[in-house]
Write a structure and sequence with these properties.
Number of strands: 9
Radius of gyration: 18 Å
Number of domains: 2
Order of helices and strands: EEHEHEEEHEEE
Low-confidence stretches: 1-20
Strand content: 35-45%
Distance between the termini: 31 Å
Helix content: 25-40%
Number of helices: 3
Structural class: alpha/beta
Shape: globular
Largest sheet: 5 strands, mixed
């Protein structure tokens, strides 16, 4: 399995290698847990947008008395011969306005994506345009 590592300073003079993908998932999961705890503490309902990790789903399901969630198809995984990318698309409303409805992006759909690597996460690609079933849509 291919993984890139980013060096993070843990303490002065001490370095630790952290897989970027694992770290991003840990941050998202801890943020979701923190949000649910705050909702319980303040006795307020919450709605979570842009759930992007499978690890968050059981946490949100266990808090369904106080939390609802929404998964949008603006993040997809693109498997290329040399590596697998997490592709960040435009918001669904923008894609639909430009002619790419959500129904065209289902699991297993073949797509061509033109984009650039994210500056903050080497595993992530920011898509500028996508071609699905011969239809090209500008995203940015």
């Amino acid at each position: 399995m291919f993984r890139r590592f980013r060096t993070a300073r843990v303490a002065p003079g001490v370095k630790k290698q952290i897989p970027t993908t694992d770290r991003a998932v840990r941050y998202k999961v801890s943020s979701t847990r923190r949000l649910i705890a705050l909702a319980r503490e303040t006795r307020r309902r919450i709605h979570v947008l842009h759930v992007t990790t499978a690890e968050e789903a059981p946490i949100l399901a266990a808090a369904k008395d106080i939390a609802t969630a929404e998964v949008t198809p603006q993040h997809l995984t693109l498997e290329a011969p040399a590596r697998t990318w997490l592709v960040v698309l435009a918001p669904p409303s923008r894609m639909e306005r430009r002619g790419l409805p959500r129904t065209m992006l289902t699991p297993g759909t073949k797509a061509t994506v033109v984009g650039y690597p994210s500056r903050s996460d080497p595993e992530e690609m920011r898509a500028e345009r996508i071609t699905v079933d011969g239809k090209t849509v500008e995203l940015r």
